[in-house]
Design a protein that fits this description.
Radius of gyration: 13 Å
Structural class: alpha+beta
Distance between the termini: 35 Å
Number of strands: 3
CATH class: Alpha Beta
Number of helices: 2
CATH superfamily: Signal recognition particle, SRP19-like subunit
Number of domains: 1
Order of helices and strands: EHEEH
CATH architecture: 2-Layer Sandwich
CATH topology: Phenylalanyl-tRNA Synthetase, Chain B, domain 1
Strand order of the largest sheet: 1-3-2
Shape: globular
Helix content: 25-40%
Largest sheet: 3 strands, antiparallel
Length: 99
Amino acid sequence: MRKQNKIVVWPIYFDSTKARGKGRKLPKKFTVPNPKLDEICRVLDKLKLRYEVVADAAYPKMPWRRTGIIYVEKGKKPKLEVLKLIGRKLVEMRGKSGK
């Protein structure tokens, strides 16, 4: 189902252990190993972006793994810019926590 004025964000977009062909959307410098849905939500809270979570959704290329999906309200920035912003904060957050 398509959501109007929403950016679709799957955790796999930020997974440094996955190849681009398997779903990663960003360069490795903006990614972390095995990102969790709650980590991405914390980043979105820090960035003050409004979002909606569907926790039991499965990425189409991996229907056996229910990683969840996040719909982020579309602002004036393009999707890739928003993803990079989330990725930077995710890397920064992981760096501070020492994971």
